What does this fold into?
Amino acid sequence: MSSAPCASLGVRMEDMKKMIETVRNASKAELIALIERGPDPSLLEAADAVRRRYYGERVFFRGLVEFSNYCKNGCYYCGLQRENRDVHRYRLTPDEILACCREGRRRGFHSFVLQSGEDAYYNEGASPLIVDVVARIKREMPECALTLSVGELPSAVYEKLHVAGGDRFLLRHETADAEHYARLHPPELTFASRKRCLYDLKAAGFAVGAGFMVGSPGQTTEHLAEDLLFLKELQPEMVGIGPFIPQAQTCFADAPAGSLERTLSMIALVRLLLPTSMLPSTTALGTLGAGGRERGLRAGANVVMPNLTPLERRKDYMLYDGKIGVDDGVGEGLARMIESVRRAGYEPDFSRGDPVIL
Ligand code: 5AD
It folds into this structure.
C-alpha cells in the first residue's frame, strides 16, 4: 500500500515515519553512523517533510534584544567572557529594553527574546531587576510571547521569572559530555549544573530550549551523538544549533570553525528526533557563508531571530568574529531576513509561534 506524498515534496508519509523511528530508536553507534553519513538528500528531505507536516511553510520570527554583554563567566569559546578586556561593556536600561520590544511590536512581532551575559546587575538580589522587566513587558504586551536567555540561576529566580510572565527560556547545554564540557568551560561551570538548571526551568513551567555548537574544540562525532541522546531524554521545546566560530580574543582563536554541512545534518537529525520542536536557523550559520541561513531552513529549521538591539550596541555583542547583521538597522535586518526566508521557499510568520502539542 502506498501513501500520498507529503506536502510539496516527494517524500512519502511512510518514509518519513520510518526516518523518525530510525532516529528515535538509534543506539549511540547508529547515531554516530547517521551523523557521519552527512546531510544527504534523503535526510534533508525527510526533515523538511516533518517540519512541513507540523508547521507548513511557516518560519517564526522572534525579535532578539541583546540587553547586556556583562558576563561573570569565562566560557573559553565566547567573546564576551569576563577576561576579555577589549569588550566595551554595556547594558540597556529597563526603559530601553521596553523600547526595543515596542519597536518590534510596531513592526508586527508577537515574540521576543531577551538575551544577555550572566549579568548580576539584572539577575541577582532579593528581587532581581529582570523579573520587573518581564512583568512590565507582559503588562504592556500581554499578547506577546517572551523568551529569556540569561543563563544559570537559582530555581527560585526561574520561578519568579515564570510567574512574572516569562514563557520560554533558552539555555544551551553546549555539550552533553561532562569531560568535553570541562574542556570548554572553567572549573566552576559543570554539565551537571547546566542539566539541573534545564530541569529546574521545566519544573518552573517554562518551555525550554537546549542546544549546542557544532565543531567546538575537542568535539567528536560521539559527543554529537551524546547531544542527541541528551535531547531525547530532556525533550526540550526548542533546540539552538549553530557552528562554533572562533573569536580572536579567546584561547580558541586559532581553532577551526565548525562545518556548515555537519550543522545541517544535526539540525535535520534533531527535526526527526523531536518532530514538533522549534529550531532556529542561527546567525552563526548565516555567518559561515552565503546562503547558510537558507540551508538551515531547508534542513528543518523553522525559526529566525532578527535583531532588535539598538544599532550602536550590536558590535559590542560579539560572541564570535564576523557576526553578520551588526551594521543593519532594525528595518534593514528585518527586510533582509524576510527576503531570505522567502528565498528559501517559506513564509514569514509573526505570531507568538507556540510549538504544536501532539
Ligand atoms: N561560536 C559560536 N557560538 C558561540 N556561542 C558562544 N560563543 C560562540 C562561538 N565562539 C553560543 C553558545 C551560547 C550562545 C549564546 O552562543 O552556544 O550558548
